[in-house]
Every structure is written in structure tokens, then in C-alpha cells.
Specification:
This protein is of the alpha+beta class and 711 residues long. The protein folds into three domains: 228 residues, no CATH class; 282 residues, Up-down Bundle (Cytochrome Bc1 Complex, Chain C); 103 residues, Immunoglobulin-like. It is built from 21 helices and 20 strands. The strands form seven sheets. The protein has a four-stranded parallel sheet with strand order 7-6-8-9, with helices on both faces. A four-stranded mixed sheet has the order 16-11-19-20, with no helix packed on it. The chain has a four-stranded antiparallel sheet with strand order 15-14-17-18, with no helix packed on it. The N and C termini lie far apart (103 Å).
Length: 711
């Protein structure tokens, strides 16, 4: 049996007859990007997001599903936080003595400055929440390796910047959480040899808090957003048609959700920062202050180890989990007709138009692929009429020849099959497709071509198969908004609907002979049912009707309330500090040890090795003695320790901060300091009877100028 081959005006890459169609083509592997380490676990995580999308899609269109636009919502929330932060400068006073009172005054004006402050806080929380969801979702989708490494690395950097802005922002409130933030930051920085005096000494008494340091924190809080701007530009540098903000419906939803939580749960500042207080518990914003769990319990060295190891692990994900770059597309210059369709369709800005390299007089330019940017999606192949650009490992010409051979074999055997082009990331990704025969047990009666992205499918491949004898054609794409390659599913739908070139020529084949299914990877069973129904009826079913406006509005409102409630709840959860019950005594000093000389006589051999003018018989080394501290409480020794001088050369002050737990009540405290090498000599001593209250601390400070001060 010979299949009829209608004659029609050919596109540049059409085959001329049965012999060409039946030509054998090598069987090629049809895989997308290389698998990553932990692929199975990540796919399970991805399925969780897909199931969430399925639930939301029953009531909301893709344009109103915030979990499909997490990146754009993050940027939108960031812009709201920036705008409200600028407005807050009209009311906020960046002074350690005035900051808390100015924040309290804002809270007392709930419909003006208070509302702006609430929006500032909850937009920052929304920014962090959606940034974390965005990172986790892209991680689960394995969209971090190969050419996507730059987006991943800059995303992690932006996440760190975002957290730093929130961390310093809570410092500026200067309430109880702000005090813990300041103390935790000081503990982290004091582990580095960059400050002559430990920052922690600035937070022992209210009088010792450095106003200039407070202003420096305010300056960094205002400056770091510029770093986010640079990182965001790099983050989107390899994307075509990147969208910074959400579309209007989702923008209204996001703003309404943030205003809702700002009005219903206005954040009140905690108690004012008091250096003498041992705070036991308070409410805090866990979106930014969760690291207090570590800073309150670990030393500076452990904190830096966690910071560096955790940061290195996150930044190294593209290389530690990735298995190499995708196989990039390539251009056959002789077949490029400078149409620019591939250039316009590429989602990753990997294709550019450059001056012709083959000397062709017909065209001035040609397309060129940058392998460093290409992710191997093959969308360019679906846009090229002449097969001049595409993926060598899944060649358009070879796949068309293979499909033609399958069709001829089936028609010869008396079968009129359907064809199916299925995206490897869609609901068809788990189908068992025989690459040599095109058969699939889950799709009987179909000849199946598995492709890395539905955007790889050129409309002519569908048209030619239908005209060659196939009864119908099925195209399986990712669900709307879930395309692994951003725009492949969208471009394919527009091509088949005649809205984007190259278009399906409906004057050649009827559109109802084509079924386009947009289903995520969890909906394989539905794909199989729909494909069977299409094969049995021969006509594509009508598309699902859009939800009614009232239903969409209700669903969006409920979802907005849920997200707002989540932001508000996590933003005001309680936190218990590790401070022990009772009281505390803190003794601290900054004092230089006495300069002491250690002299010795040089031997004859040493003198002989020196120039004549340097032969001094005696050598004296000068060094500062370690400073000793002794603390007795009610006559009982609690601390007896020496502290070496600071500095590279050991010539600076010795510094000590010693916290001691004390039972509440009156106690006799004696503090002695010795600054010489004589262990029995105590140069400075002082003692007092102090009254210790529950959950408070008393502080004893000493320096050479002011002497002892008791607080």
C-alpha cells in the first residue's frame, strides 16, 4: 500500500517524495539538559509545587496564580518596600536616643505613618517569602546548571543582600529584638581582627552605645539596595523579555494582600532596648531574625564557619549538582535566510544576528548562537522554516525523516496512526517511548516523538504528517506558566493558533485535527485519557471554559487572605532567648599592660656574625605584660584569668568581657586588675555591695582614664 502524498507549495525544507520521506535517519537520543545529581529527589519536590498549582488552577487562571510568578512578585514587593522606606524618612529619627520613640509615634498614627511602616514591614516579609519560594521552586526544577549558573549565583547574592537589609532594619528600631540583633552582629564581627576594641563592649550599658555606629548601620541599610539593583540586572541579563513586575491583576492582588495584613495585624515595637535587661522572650519577625537562634547560642568562630560553608554550598550548586552544560544549538549558515525568527523566539538571549560569514550575496546577516547562554531547549528549531538552526542531537531533518518512515510503515500495514509530539518535561515525560519505532504502550495508535520542549515542534512538521496520512496530531506541552524553558509552550500555542510565525497553515489542514494539551508532569493519566478520546473521536475537544469572574475574585481573595495571614503569623511569632533565669554580672576592662624589657647578652658567635657598627653586647626586647583579672563574689573567686595584649605586634590594650551568672539579691563584689608580670601585684582594685534583680545584669567597667565604673 502506497500512501498518497499531496502536492503543495513547499517550504524550504520540505521533502520531495516518498523516497526522501522513507530515507533512514540515525536513531538519536531525545533527552533535554543533562540530569543533575539528586534528580529523583528534586523531581519529587517539584511535584509538590505542581500539585499546588493544580489545586489553584481549579479556581484561578495562570495570570492570578502567585506561585507561578514568584520572581515578579518578589521584585514588586521589593519596590513597595523601597518606596515605603523612603516615605518613612519623614518620621524616623536615625539616632540611638530618638529612634525607638519615633517608631512608637508611628504606631500611634495607624492611618498615616503607622500604615506606611506596616506596609514597609510586610512588603519586606513578602519579598523574603516569595524570594525563598522562587529559589526553592527553581532548585526543584533543576534550573540552576549550565548557562543558568549566573542567574542562580546572583539570586543567592540578592537573597543575602535582602536578609542583610532586613537584619539591619530591625537594628534601627532599637527595641528588644533590635538589641539582640546588635549583640549578635557584634559577636560575629568581634571574631575578626579588624577592631581594636570589641564591639560587644558598646552594648554593655545604655551610655556606652555608640551613636556613630548606629548611624553607620542606618547608612548601610539605605545603601545595600543599590547592590540588589546591580545583582538584579545581572540576574536577568541572560533572559529575553524579562518581566520585572507582575501584570496588573496580580499587582492588585499583591498590593491588596499587603494592605490587608498591614491593617489587620499592625506591628507594634517590642519593649525598648535596655542593655541592663536580660530579655527572656519577645515576638519577632522570623522571616529575617531567625538567625538569632544561632547568634544567641554560638560563638563567633562557629557563626563564621556556618556562614562560609553554607554560602559556599549554595553558590556551588550549579557545579556540585550539575553534570555539565546543555548541548547548545548550532547554525547551518548555508540554510539561514536571515529571517530573525529564532532571534526573536529565544528566551535566553542566546541568539544574535551577525554579519554573514559565508559570503552569500542574498543576505547581509545570519544568526549566531552563544553556547555560554544556550540551555539546549530547541525553541529556535521550531521557529526556523529552513532547519538552519537547531540541536544536533535531535536534528529537525533527521526527526522528520524518521517520522516519515514510521508513517509509511504504518500506512503500508493498513494502519492510519495519530502522531504525538510530547515535551519531555510535560505530562508525557514519564511515558515509555521506543525511540526506534515511535511506539508507546500508554498511547496505542500513536507515533510518538519526544522532544526537549514543545517549542521545538515546527508547525510544518505537524502539517506535513497530517497531509502524509496521519489521522490527527497531538502536542503535549507543560502547563501554562510552568514551561521549563520559559516561553516554549506559549510560542507553540501561538504558532498553532496563527498568532506567531511560523504559523500552522489551516488552509492546508483543519485545526480540529490537532489536539494541544497543556498538562504538568503529575497529570500523565489525564494525558492518556485525553489522547485516547481524541483518537477515538478524531476531533479535538473544546477547550476548558474560563472560570467565572465572581469565582476568580473569591478564590483570589481567599488566597490573598491566606498568604497575608502566613506573613503576619510568621512575622509575630514568639522567641525564647537562651538567657538563664536569675541575674548576671558582667566585668569588662580595656587596659594596656606595663611595658617591660627583657635583656640578654649576645654570645661571641652572634657578635661575630654582625657588622662592626651593630655589635651591641646587650639586646633588650620591649613588650607589654598581659593584664590579669580577679573577680570575687561574697569572698568566693569567680574569675582569675590573664588577657594578652591585642594587635599584630602585641602592643595594644588587653580587653576582657566576662559574664557571670549571679543569684538575685545583694552580693559583695570585688574586682582586681593587675597590669604587670608580678602575679601577686594587683594595681587596681575596687569593691561594692550590689543589688541584683531578676532578669537584669549589673556591669563593672574599667579603663585607665575613667577607672572603675559600676552600673
Amino acid at each position: 500500500m502506497t500512501s498518497p502524498i499531496p502536492t503543495h507549495s513547499a517550504r524550504p525544507d520540505e521533502f520531495s517524495g516518498p523516497l526522501a520521506l522513507a530515507e533512514a535517519a540515525p536513531v538519536l537520543e531525545t533527552t533535554a539538559e543533562p540530569a543533575v545529581r539528586g534528580e529523583r529527589l528534586l523531581r519529587r519536590l517539584e511535584r509538590g509545587f505542581l500539585r499546588l498549582d493544580r489545586v489553584l488552577s481549579r479556581a484561578l487562571p495562570e495570570a492570578l496564580n502567585p506561585f507561578l510568578h514568584t520572581g515578579a512578585i518578589t521584585v514588586t514587593a521589593l519596590f513597595v518596600a523601597l518606596a515605603t522606606g523612603v516615605l518613612l524618612l519623614f518620621w524616623y529619627r536615625p539616632s540611638v536616643h530618638l529612634a525607638y520613640d519615633s517608631v512608637v509615634a508611628m504606631s500611634n498614627a495607624p492611618w498615616t505613618s503607622g500604615l506606611v511602616r506596616s506596609l514597609h514591614r510586610y512588603s519586606s516579609d513578602a519579598c523574603m517569602f516569595f524570594a525563598l519560594v522562587h529559589a526553592l521552586r527553581l532548585f526543584s526544577e533543576r534550573r540552576f546548571a549550565g548557562a543558568r549558573w549566573l542567574a542562580w549565583v546572583t539570586g543567592i547574592v540578592m537573597l543575602a543582600f535582602l536578609w542583610f537589609i532586613g537584619w539591619t532594619g530591625y537594628w534601627l528600631v532599637w527595641d528588644e529584638p533590635g538589641q539582640r540583633v546588635a549583640e549578635g552582629t557584634a559577636q560575629l564581627l568581634d571574631a575578626l581582627p579588624i577592631f581594636a576594641d570589641p564591639l560587644a563592649r558598646s552594648f554593655l550599658t545604655d551610655e556606652g552605645v555608640n551613636t556613630f555606629l548606629f548611624f553607620v548601620i542606618f547608612f548601610f541599610h539605605m545603601l545595600v539596595p543599590l547592590g540588589i539593583g546591580v545583582a538584579l540586572w545581572l540576574h536577568l541579563a541572560r533572559l529575553s523579555r524579562a518581566r520585572f513586575l507582575t501584570r496588573r491583576p496580580l499587582l492588585v492582588w499583591a498590593l491588596a494582600s499587603m494592605v490587608l495584613v498591614s491593617v489587620v495585624l499592625p506591628p507594634d515595637p517590642a519593649g525598648p532596648a535596655r542593655m541592663a535587661a536580660l530579655t527572656q522572650a519577645f515576638e519577632m519577625d522570623w522571616w529575617y531574625l531567625a538567625p538569632l537562634i544561632a547568634t544567641d547560642r554560638l560563638g563567633g568562630g562557629a557563626l563564621w564557619a556556618i556562614l562560609f560553608l553554607g554560602g559556599a554550598a549554595l553558590l556551588a550548586v550549579p557545579w556540585s549538582l550539575g553534570r555539565g552544560p546543555a548541548r547548545a544549538a548550532s547554525v547551518v549558515v548555508s540554510r539561514c535566510n536571515a529571517c530573525e525568527k529564532c532571534y526573536n523566539d529565544c528566551p535566553y538571549d542566546a541568539i544574535s544576528m551577525i554579519p554573514r560569514t559565508d559570503g552569500s550575496p542574498r543576505y547581509a546577516v545570519q544568526s549566531s548562537v552563544d553556547p555560554a547562554k544556550c540551555v539546549g531547549c530547541g525553541i529556535c528549531a521550531g521557529s526556523c522554516d529552513t532547519a538552519g538552526v537547531g540541536l544536533e542531537w535531535i536534528s529537525v531533518r533527521d526527526q522528520r525523516k524518521r517520522l516519515a518512515g514510521w508513517l509509511m510503515r504504518a500506512l503500508t500495514e493498513g494502519e492510519a496512526p495519530h502522531i504525538a509530539f510530547v515535551c519531555a518535561e510535560s505530562a508525557a515525560g514519564s511515558l515509555a517511548v521506543d525511540l526506534e519505532t515511535g511506539r508507546c504502550p500508554e498511547l496505542p495508535g500513536y507515533l510518538v516523538v519526544s522532544v526537549p520542549c514543545a517549542g521545538w515542534v515546527h508547525p510544518f512538521a505537524i502539517e506535513h504528517s497530517l497531509r502524509f496520512g496521519a489521522k490527527g496530531a497531538l502536542v503535549s506541552t507543560c502547563a501554562s506558566g510552568q514551561c521549563r524553558y520559559r516561553e516554549g509552550a506559549q510560542w507553540e500555542r501561538m504558532r498553532l493558533d496563527g498568532e506567531r510565525e511560523p504559523v500552522l497553515r489551516t488552509q492546508k489542514v483543519a485545526r480540529d485535527r490537532l489536539l494541544l494539551l497543556s498538562l504538568d508532569a503529575t497529570r500523565t493519566a489525564r494525558l492518556v485519557r485525553a489522547a485516547r478520546a481524541f483518537r477515538e473521536s478524531g476531533v479535538a475537544p473544546p477547550e476548558r471554559r474560563a472560570q467565572r469572574p465572581a469565582k476568580r475574585l473569591l478564590a483570589a481573595s481567599v488566597l490573598g487572605a491566606v498568604v497575608a495571614g502566613l506573613l503576619g503569623a510568621v512575622s509575630q511569632l514568639g522567641y525564647a532567648t537562651p538567657s538563664a533565669d536569675g541575674s548576671q554580672l558582667v566585668v569588662s576592662f580595656k587596659h594596656p599592660g606595663q611595658l617591660e624589657e627583657n635583656c640578654r647578652e649576645r654570645s661571641e658567635e652572634e657578635l661575630a656574625r654582625l657588622p662592626v657598627h651593630m655589635r651591641q653586647t646587650q639586646v633588650c626586647d620591649r613588650a607589654r605584660a598581659a593584664v590579669r583579672l580577679r573577680v570575687r563574689v561574697d569572698g568566693v573567686p569567680r574569675v582569675t584569668q590573664s588577657y594578652p595584649p591585642k594587635g599584630i605586634w602585641g602592643d595594644l590594650n588587653s580587653v576582657a568581657i566576662e559574664p557571670l551568672p549571679i543569684e538575685p539579691g545583694e552580693h559583695r563584689v570585688e574586682v582586681a586588675i593587675g597590669d604587670s608580670s608580678d602575679a601577686d601585684e594587683w594595681t587596681y582594685t575596687s569593691e561594692r555591695t550590689l543589688s541584683f534583680n531578676e532578669s537584669e545584669r549589673r556591669v563593672v567597667l574599667f579603663d585607665r582614664v575613667a577607672g572603675f565604673s559600676w552600673h
